[in-house]
Amino acid sequence: MKKILNSIPYSVLDLATVIEGKTPADTFKNSLDLAQHVEKWGFNRYWLAEHHNMISVASSATSVVIGHIAGGTNTIRVGSGGIMLPNHSPLIIAEQFGTLASLYPGRIDLGLGRAPGTDQVTAAAIRGDLRFQAAQDFPNEVMKLQAYLSLENSNSSVRAIPGEGLDIPIWILGSSTESARLAAAFGLPYAFASHFAPAQFMAAINIYRQNFKPSEHLAEPYVLACVNVVAADTDAEANKLVTSLYQLFLGIVTGKRRLLQPPVDDMNQVWDVYEEEQASQMLACTFVGSKETLKTDLQQFLDQTGVDEIMATSHIFDHAARLRSYELLAEVFKV
Q: Which end of the chain has the smaller Cβ count within 10 Å, N or C?
């Protein structure tokens, strides 16, 4: 049966972007304001991602920021998209998210990734040589975490207090087919990072669906796709606003990362043809335009992918314009 936009949940990935001229403190203030607005506009969940040693991303202490957002909202689900598990002991994550779930019952999601969320030098500073073993042993690390959160662990010599016995949904995050196989084998919901790694998106979600094994957590496969969205009242305005996102990805291509830059009138004055091509490959799942344009384009995306939920991340320089973008997106899903 064909899915339509107003039949699926819509959510937010906040990369806690630090904009030029501002500080992480400003970012956290704006994140909470955004979360409070999107809660009113009917968004389903609000996720934050773990990154380190990146000047434009402020959510390095992800669990702390999740608590900040959950504490300032009432109903929206809040969680990680994701926690990079090789950086941490599974016990510590069980305790942190057990604490969050105890403070904000029924509202906390735990998305897990196997990448370090940073460069190798910083990864070594986070967890030393243990990071290699943890990344290679990711499936077992996930199982350890599940065990700590289970009631059955109550007789163990090592227990997660709080955490044990709490219903904290675990998601597998990924940008490759390997993560899809793991999510399928574990019978867990799958969130794909198509906002920056769209190349294997279709292959991954097909593998996930074909190999999914029902579990106590999930009876049928569930796919969440994260995409870039920049909405405005006109296509022209949105096409200018999105140049901040383009400049961010130019920094990824060139290795010269900067704080989020203001929009420009002409990207051809900023990047060359090669840089544009490299960035465009990563930005294939990017939706830009007015409400009418987004409705058409996102419905086409839904027709092609059949995803169960769409999560939007929006790198927009001006906070008021960012709020407006999410407000328009909510209207797209409600029509």
A: N
Cα separation, 332 vs 288, in Å, equals 13
Q: Tell me phi and psi for residue 57, to 5 degrees.
A: -125, 120
Give the pLDDT confidence of 176-227 residue by residue, as tens digits: 999 999 999 999 999 999 999 999 999 999 999 999 999 999 999 999 999 9
Residue length of the chain: 335
Query: What gap in Å lies between CA 149 and CA 166, rounded to an integer?
Result: 6
Q: Where are the beta strands (DSSP E) in the chain?
A: 10-14, 45-48, 77-84, 108-113, 170-174, 190-192, 223-231, 286-289, 309-313
Output Rg (C-alpha) for the chain, integer angstroms.
19
Say which amino acid occupies 335.
V
C-alpha separations of 275 from 164, 230, 254, 264 in Å? 48, 21, 8, 16
Cα–Cα dist 333/292, whole Å:
11
Angle at 50 between CA 22 and CA 210, to 5 degrees: 135
Q: Which of 60, 40, 42, 61 is nearest to 52 (CA)?
A: 60
**For residues 102 and 91, what is the distance between their CA atoms, to the nearest angstrom?**
16
Q: Each residue of 267-306: b (16+ CB within 10 Å) or e?
A: beeebeeebbebbeebbebbbbbbbebbbebbeebbeebe
Summarize pLDDT for 81-128 with one digit per residue, the tens: 999 999 999 999 999 999 999 999 999 999 999 876 666 777 778 776
> What angle separates helix 138-148 from helix 90-103, to the nearest 10 degrees?
40
pTM over 0.85: yes
**Among all chains, which residue has been given the structure tokens 């949940």?**
9
What does the buried/exposed string (b/e) look like for 197-207 if buried means 16 or more CB atoms within 10 Å of the residue's CB?
bbebbeebbeb
**Cα–Cα dist 325/330, whole Å:** 9
